[in-house]
Each structure stands twice: as C-alpha cells, then as structure tokens.
Amino acid sequence: MAAKPKLYYFDGRGRMEPIRWLLAAAGVEFEEEFLETSKDLEKLRNDGSLMFQQVPMVEIDGMKLVQCRAILNYIAAKYNLYGKDTKERALIDMYIEGVADLNEMYLFWSISPPNEQAAKMTQMKDKIANCYLPAFEKVLKSHGQDYVVGNRLSRADIHLVELLYTVDELDPSLLANFPLLKALKARISNLPNVKKFLQPGSPRKPPMDEKCLAKVKEIFQLK
Amino acid sequence: MAAKPMLHYFNGRGRMEPIRWLLAAAGVEFEETFIDTPEDFEKLKNDGSLMFQQVPMVEIDGMKLVQSRAILNYIAAKHNLYGKDTKERALIDMYIEGVADLNEMILLLPVSPPAEKDAKITLIKDRTTNRYLPAFEKVLKSHGQDYLVGNRLSRADIHLVELLYLVEELDPSLLTNFPLLKALKARISNLPTVKKFLQPGGARKPPVDEKSVEKSRKIFKF
C-alpha cells in the first residue's frame, strides 16, 4: 500500500491550504510535518529536499515536489479532478488562476503591516465584488449545471469553494448578490469528503492570527 | 484549416512573451493585435472578451483564453510539449514554476520604485546564481541528457532557455559557472523553430525600455 502523502509547511493555511483542500476532497489521507522554527527550514534545505529552498513541499509517490501548482496539478490529474480533455482543462486552468490571483492578494494582505491592511482590504473587496465573483457567477449561469466545468466535480469547484469560504470570513455580505455561487458552496460543502474536512478536528487550518504570524516571520526570516 | 491563434497584448514582452516563445518553438504561426491606447483596452473589456478584465488573452481553437498558465498549459498539451505522463508533468511543472518565480522578479524590475531598484537587482542576481541556476544545472547533471525532462524537448526547455536569455541580458557573467545550462541554451537556440524566432524580424519582442513602460502605464493605468 502506498505511503500517505506527507506535507511539509508551517501549521497554518498559507500556500499549503489549497493542497489540503484538494487532497481532502479527493478522499486522500495525508500526514503533515510542521516547521516550527527557522532551524527546521534550514534542516530541510540542507537535506536537499527543497529544489528552490522553499516550501510547500509534498512527498508523494516517490517524489519530493515543490511549487504549489506542480503539486496541485499532479494531485488533480491523479484523482481525475482535472477535466476530461485539454479544452476542459483550459477552462479549469483559466478559472483556477483567477482564484489564485485573488488568493495571492489575500495572502499578502494577511502578512502586511497593520497600517497597510485597510487599503489592501478595500482593494481586495472591490476586486471580489466587481471582478471575480461576477465572473464565476456568470459561468454557472451560462450552463446552469451543478459544477463549474464539464458537469462533474473538478478541482475548479474545490478551489473556488475554498475561496468562497475565505470571502465569507472576510465579509459575508460580499456573497449576497451571488446566488449560484452560494448554492455551489452549499452543494460542494455537502460532499462527504468535503463535509468531513470542514468539521472540527480535520486538517483544515484556521485563519492567520498574531501568534501564527510571528512564527511565520521567524521561520522565513521576514521583516 | 484552423485560424491562427490571435494574441491580444501590448507590443512588448511582459506576460505574453513566454506564450510567443512556446508557440514559436512548437512551429505554430500566430497573429497579434496590439493594445496601443487605453481605449483599445477599454474596448476589449467592454466586448466581454476578458474573463477577469486582464490581458494576456489568446483566441485559440474557438476559445478566448486568459491567464498565462491556462494559455501555456493548453498550447503545451496540444503540441506534445508537456511530458508523456503525470510524473513527467510534475517535474516539468516544478521546474517551470521555478522559472516563473525568477521571471516574475525580472518582469517587475522596470516598474519598481527607483529607490528600490538597486536592491532588487542585487536580490535577482543572488537568487539567479545561488538558487535557480544551480537547481537547473543539477537537474541536467543528474541525468546527463540533452533535455531537462524525459530525454526529449518539452516546454521546460523552452521556458528555461527564455529565462537564460533574460539573465544574459541582465548580466552575462551570471551564466559563467553553469556549463550545462550554457550548452542547453545553445542546443535549444539551434532548433529550427527557435532559431527562426530568435532572428531579427521574428515575433520575439525586444527588451523593455522606459518609453514602453510609460506607454504600458497609460494603457493599464498602474
């Protein structure tokens, strides 16, 4: 029996969270090794485990993969969550890269100095309400199906719903005018694997807090 | 006969250049519609052609694709430049995402605040010689083959060689201690389709200059 994938990251969402969501949605059990200090990161680097000296890193199927997209693409293809052909994949990629752009804004907001956060938040909310959510609502409206692409579950649904949870945490009112997205969020949340992941005690990580931020700054030697 | 892909972007490298390189390497002729004014950009947005109100956008096989990676992934898969199975693809993805990270630093250099530029150049050079180039040299050394993955041409070779040209433009001495990368650069540059792309008059765009940065600022309002 193959070893479970092993995730190397700090104990928080960051860039590993979409990977946790996707593995969970695919019904794949995984293990995690948490970096607690900069020494832990040094050790991983000195071991030669990190191709570009960075995490996330996931040990899976005999590989030590770094780079989120490499990891996510591999998992998605392995578990048939990447569409049935190159055209479906193109749509999935287009949608999930939009999700990734917004995620990136959120990531940087969460580690910005407090005096910069308000302006960044305003900018983010504007993009959410006027660019991203309308684009995805329009996709669902265009075909009226239960899933974003190809009338079946794909990584596009998982990554988008993860984003909708983040948006909901930031400001629930942002989702008010997007009934199809709200319905997608409810449907996907009810899938057995996702439901399990959303319950307390699962590998899902909570939002960044001050304590976690301090740890992250030490581990990665950020100012 | 299928229409040629149509690229929508400004007349410069930016985020479209890897797409030009990949299409060219695959031997695919393409057309370009250049966004020259803010009005051109507004028109594209109002047409509903841009899913997230952004370019690059490529019209290809009946789709209006945005997001560089979506476009590149489609082209690579279509033209058999994405490895033979998911494991080769994982390696290709890992390598090209490293390329993309360094590329991003170089891409954003012309638009960084002048006070920060020197520090950014120092960081780019440090990352190039201490993180990225050693990693890729090590891959080539590990298997001794002519291509990065799977002993045949893939997008990994194309994207990496494009990056090596950028590194060389920044500072040729950065490539000094990487003989296998220099050899890869020479070999890939000699492939007929790539050779053609690199010649004057090819679709390859020149390095960014102040004038084109100012023009981009006006069009994209940043």
Structure, described:
Chain B: Keywords: Transferase. Chain B: Residues 85-208 form the GST C-terminal domain. Chain B: InterPro entries: Glutathione-S-Trfase_C-like, Glutathione-S-Trfase_C_sf, Glutathione_S-Trfase, Glutathione_S-Trfase_N, GST_alpha, GST_C, GST_superfamily, Thioredoxin-like_sf. Chain A has 223 residues and is α+β, with helices and mostly antiparallel strands. Chain A has nine helices and four strands; from the N terminus they run βαβαββααααααα. Chain A has helices at 17-25, 38-46, 68-78, 86-111, 114-143, 155-170, 179-189, 192-198, 210-219, and strands at residues 6-10, 31-35, 57-60, 63-66. The radius of gyration of chain A is 18 Å and the shape is globular. In chain B, 57% of the residues lie in helices and 7% in strands. Chain B has helices spanning 17-25, 38-46, 68-78, 86-108, 114-143, 155-170, 179-189, 192-198, 210-220, and strands at residues 6-9, 31-34, 57-60, 63-66. The mean pLDDT of chain B is 96. The longest helix of chain B has 30 residues, at 114-143. Classes of the chains: A alpha+beta (223), B alpha+beta (222).
Helical percentage of chain B? 55-70%
The radius of gyration of chain A is 18 Å
State the major sheet of chain A. 4 strands, mixed
Shape of chain A: globular
What is the helix tally of chain A?
Answer: 9
Distance between the termini of chain B: 40 Å
Report the helical percentage of chain A.
Answer: 55-70%
Indicate the structural class of chain A: alpha+beta
Structural class of chain B: alpha+beta
The fraction of residues in strands of chain B falls at: 5-15%
> How many DSSP helices of chain B?
9
Series of secondary-structure elements of chain B, N-terminal to C-terminal: EHEHEEHHHHHHH
Could you give the count of β-strands of chain B? 4
InterPro entries (chain B): Glutathione-S-Trfase_C-like, Glutathione-S-Trfase_C_sf, Glutathione_S-Trfase, Glutathione_S-Trfase_N, GST_alpha, GST_C, GST_superfamily, Thioredoxin-like_sf
Catalytic activity (chain B): RX + glutathione = an S-substituted glutathione + a halide anion + H(+)
Domain GST C-terminal (chain B): 85-208
Pfam family, one (chain B): GST_N
